[in-house]
From TrEMBL:
Gene3D superfamilies: Nucleoside Triphosphate Pyrophosphohydrolase (3.90.79.10). PANTHER family: ACYL-COENZYME A DIPHOSPHATASE NUDT19, TESTOSTERONE-REGULATED PROTEIN RP2. Residues 25-228 form the Nudix hydrolase domain. Residues 275-296 are annotated as: Disordered. This is NUDIX domain-containing protein. InterPro entries: NUDIX_hydrolase-like_dom_sf, NUDIX_hydrolase_dom, NUDT19.
């Protein structure tokens, strides 16, 4: 049992099995499940239908690690990179980059900043024009996270993040990401906002509602997002999520042939819920909101 692969990916999977092509390397990436209480909800972005990858699907904030994210100039408070390295089974430089990418991408894609003046404070409202200018500079790459924090006299708060999961995009894909998932609570006084760009819209949703929408074909979810929503949906409050014992296991979906069809097997996934949903298509007309795909 598994998720049927679309034709072009099925052909690619067979070519890989025959040794005709090899998998492309997976880039380090981070994604953050942003939470708020009463009731417990998650922040989701709907990727624009014009995006070449994962168009029209709902995702958490996240993206690739910028080489500058690992810069030791990034002011830091909370568990050090060495602790995150042990959790995610990586070297300290990679761990530093992942945590910094998680904070940077969350701000870029939601306006929420997990930073403060010191290890006991968090910034308040970040919706002003000056904050927006900094956010756009980060998105455009003209400002680094280190420069952004230094310019505002802030330190990254790694203690506001919790590790959650590790997913690697299937080898059959042509764009692959080695993604670590974090969870974080919306800081008091801060507000998310629709920041545009890659997102066609944003919404706070109860995990159960997002899953029901996917089952009804009303929104697209990729396998990592679907699985994470299922896990988060087992809790009622943020403190319960944070208190959950997590062992970070690597999930790498695999393409296999079953009864003449190429399917993707995802350990522990409820295939009955793994539906496409949404209507996103690339410019070439290929379905791009396939739930088997990894995080951007």
């Amino acid at each position: 049992m598994g998720i049927p692969l679309p034709g072009h990916l099925a052909d690619r999977a067979r070519a890989m099995a025959a040794g005709e092509i090899v998998a492309v390397p997976a880039r380090d990436a981070a994604t953050v499940v942003l939470l708020r209480d009463d009731p417990l909800e998650v922040y989701l972005l709907e990727r624009a239908a014009t995006m070449a990858f994962a168009a029209g699907v709902h995702v958490f904030p996240g993206g690739s690690v910028d080489p500058r994210d690992a810069d030791h100039a990034v002011a830091w408070a909370g568990p050090p990179a060495a602790e995150w390295a042990e959790i995610f089974h990586v070297d300290e430089r990679t761990a530093r980059g992942l945590v910094c990418a998680a904070v940077r991408e969350t701000f870029e894609e939601s306006g929420v900043l997990l930073a403060g003046a010191d290890d006991g404070t968090v910034v308040g409202d970040t919706t002003g024009d000056d904050w927006e200018a900094d956010r756009l500079a980060l998105v455009g790459g003209t400002l680094s996270l280190a420069g952004f924090l230094a310019g505002r006299g802030l330190v990254l708060r790694s203690d506001l993040l919790r590790p959650w999961a590790h997913w690697i995009t299937p080898a059959v894909e042509t764009r692959r990401f080695d993604t670590r998932f974090f969870v974080a609570a919306l800081p008091p006084g801060q507000r998310t906002r629709d920041v545009g760009g890659e997102a066609a819209g944003v919404a706070w949703m109860r995990p159960a509602d997002a899953l029901a929408g996917a089952a009804a074909g009303q929104l697209g979810l990729m396998a990592p997002t679907l699985n994470t929503l299922t896990e988060i949906g087992a809790f009622e409050r943020i403190d319960e999520v944070f208190a959950a014992e997590r062992t970070i296991m690597t999930v790498l979906p695999a393409a296999v042939e079953v009864d003449g069809r190429m399917v993707l097997t995802v350990p522990g996934l409820d295939y009955r819920s793994a539906v496409r949903g949404g209507s996103g298509r690339s410019a070439g007309g290929d379905v791009t909101n396939d739930p088997v795909r990894g995080i951007r």
